[in-house]
Structures are given as C-alpha cells and as structure tokens.
Design brief:
alpha/beta, Nucleotidyltransferase, domain 5, five-stranded mixed beta sheet, globular, RNaseH-like_sf, Transposase, Homeodomain-like_sf
C-alpha cells in the first residue's frame, strides 16, 4: 500500500539560520536541537524514511515534526501545554532567575548554586534547576580559550585544513608532535579492583620513577602512528625523529609534516636536515592552536585509555606500556575524520572575536 505523500517543506534564510543555531546546541537543549536537525534534513529534500534512518528515530516522529513545522513554522517545534497541576512559577520569577544567573554573582562567590539562588528568588532549588536546564545555563561550568595572535593565522588555517580535506596526490600527510614528561607513576598502595557497586579505588599519592618523552606522527589518511621514545625533546631529537619518519614512508612520496611552532622545530639543525631531504615539507599550525593538530586527538586517547589509570613501577615498565599501545593502535588503526573546512573555522573565530570585543570587554 502506498505511503501517505510527504508535505513539501522549504525554509527561509532566517529560518535556516535559526534552526542551524538550535541544532548545534548539543546537550544544553537536546530536544530542540534534535527537532531542528529533523527539519533541516527534511528541507534538504530527504523523505521521512531517509531522515528517520539518519537520525535513528521513527518515520512517524519525522512526519509529526515536518507537519508541525509546516503548519506553525518555528513555533511548532516547541512543546505544547500538557495536562497536570497548574503552573506555580510566574514569568517574573523565571525572568529573575535567568537575569540573576547571567548578570549577578552572590556575595563572596564567583557563581550561583541552586540553593543560593532559590533562597534569593523565593522558589525551590529544583525549580532553579529546571529553569537552568530549559535555558541552557550551567553556572558551575567554565571553559578556557585563547585567541591566536599569529599574523598568519588565516593562511596557516587554510594550509593545514587544506591538507586534511584535500591532501596532495603522491604524498603522505603526517600530523606530528611530542608528548613530553610522561611520568612513570606508582601508587603508594595497591589499586583495589572494581567490584559490583564499587568502582576501582586508588590512593591519591604516588611515587614517581622518572619521565620519558614520546614523539608521534599520525598518518591522517590511515590513522597509523609512527612513534619514537626519547629521554629528551631537543632539536636533535626532533631531527632524528624526522629521519625515522623519512625511512618509514614509501620512497618517492612527498612528505607533508604538520607541527606546532616549538623552537626545536625551527632550529638550524632541522633546517639543515630539510635541505638534505627536499621531499619533506613542514607546515606550522598557528600559535596557541594545538587543537588544529590531529595528533593531539591521538594523544588524548593515549592519556585517557592508557596513562590516566596506569600504574608503572619503573621507567622500563612505562616504556613497554607505550610500545605495546603503539603496536595495538596500529594493528587496529582508524583515521580521525576532519569535518570543518577553513571558511567555517575562520568564520567561527570571527564571530567569537566579535562577541568578546564589545564594551564589556
């Protein structure tokens, strides 16, 4: 039996911009973000079945929000009134919670707690929590940022992202960096294993048995990593690692190495090596922009899955653990997927700079 024909859906420029903003809110407004993604995919011409498959929902759910949006546009994506007890919070109280959260801090503190704000406004702490969740407010969280001051910021972003999204032919692109001072840490008491109802437990104090540095080169196409352990990370050590990279790569291929602006990467001994190896090209990331170097994502995996909870009674034990991690990773290598193009990144930086350049800053 033929399915019910879907209703055509088109978006104005303002509606698309609003929906794209809602769709990227993530955890702060998951329900609205999910509905916005449904509408955006519908507007791209996908039928209900394709949208449902893409987002992991049912066709009826897609049809419901398609029809709600066509009938009521953006207002149709909100929740309809539900039966139940009468609302006890007034609009004025909700506004006061939001305004105080955004514009004030309690005396002697840097941010509001639910109980403090509830006592000030005269409502329950659970009501404050619901208001914060509805408006995506998280006063207990803070994020750090650093805007690059590199005069070649835009050129370097286009260069590095271009290598990720459109690598040259007959070439290999490697994301390279060092992870210095990896500590061989032994806890002062034996680690107690996880049991039903009880997580793994460990002492907060430890004994340190030395440190080691790890050089890593991530092949952005295959996900495989060339690694080298070193007692230091001097310019000569970086040169030796470049030499190891050169001998690992298939002969005849151009080698594009993405690295940061560390002085050891620009030392005379490195320049001399590069002159002797004309097929190797260094590409530098902007200053204060380690996030653009894909090998940092690999280092994060190493830290989370092997080092944070690792116990190493000697430097040799740490060395073996790192070598085993490299071997295991390369046996199951998978590349990281870069999704943002240079224009999107530059645009996001520009919008952020505009936000922090107002009178309040």
């Amino acid at each position: 039996m033929a399915g019910k024909p879907r209703r055509p859906l088109t978006l104005s420029v303002d509606e698309r911009r609003t929906l794209q903003g809602w769709a990227t809110r993530g955890k702060t407004a998951q329900v609205l973000a999910h509905r916005s993604r449904i509408i955006l995919l519908c507007a791209d011409g996908l039928d209900n079945t394709a949208v449902a498959r893409r987002l992991g929902v049912t066709r009826d759910t897609v049809g419901k929000w398609r029809n709600r949006f066509i009938d009521r546009r953006l207002d149709g994506l909100g929740d309809e009134p539900r039966p139940g007890a009468p609302r006890t919070l007034t609009d004025a109280q909700v506004e006061e919670v939001v305004v105080r959260t955004l514009e004030e801090v309690p005396e002697g503190a840097t941010h509001w707690s639910r109980r403090e704000l509830a006592a000030r406004v005269g409502i329950s702490a659970s009501s404050v929590r619901r208001i914060w969740r509805a408006f995506g407010l998280q006063p207990h969280l803070v994020e750090e940022f650093k805007i690059s001051t590199d005069p070649l910021l835009i050129d370097k972003i286009r260069d590095v992202v271009g290598l990720y999204l459109s690598p040259p032919e007959h070439a290999v692109v490697l994301s390279v960096d060092e992870k210095p001072h990896i500590q061989a840490i032994e806890r002062s008491a034996p680690v107690l294993p996880m049991m039903p109802g009880t997580p793994e437990r460990r002492s907060h104090d430890y004994h340190r048995h030395g440190t080691i540095d790890l050089f890593a080169a991530l092949n952005v196409a295959t996900g495989k990593v060339i690694g080298k352990l070193s007692a230091q990370h001097r310019a000569v050590d970086f040169r030796d690692f470049l030499d190891e990279i050169f001998h690992h790569v298939e002969p005849g291929l151009e080698i594009h190495v993405i690295c940061d602006n560390l002085s050891t990467h620009k030392a005379p001994v490195v320049h001399k090596w590069l002159l002797a190896h004309p097929t190797v090209h260094l590409h530098f990331t902007p200053t204060y922009s380690s996030w653009i170097n894909q090998v940092e994502r690999w280092f994060a995996e190493l830290q989370r899955r092997r080092l944070d909870r690792g116990v190493f009674c000697s430097l040799d034990e740490l060395t073996r653990a790192l070598q085993e991690w490299l071997k295991h990773w390369n046996e199951n290598a998978r590349p990281f997927t870069w999704t943002k193009d240079a224009d999107q990144i530059i645009g996001a930086i520009g919008r952020y700079c505009a936000r922090i350049s107002g009178p309040g800053h």
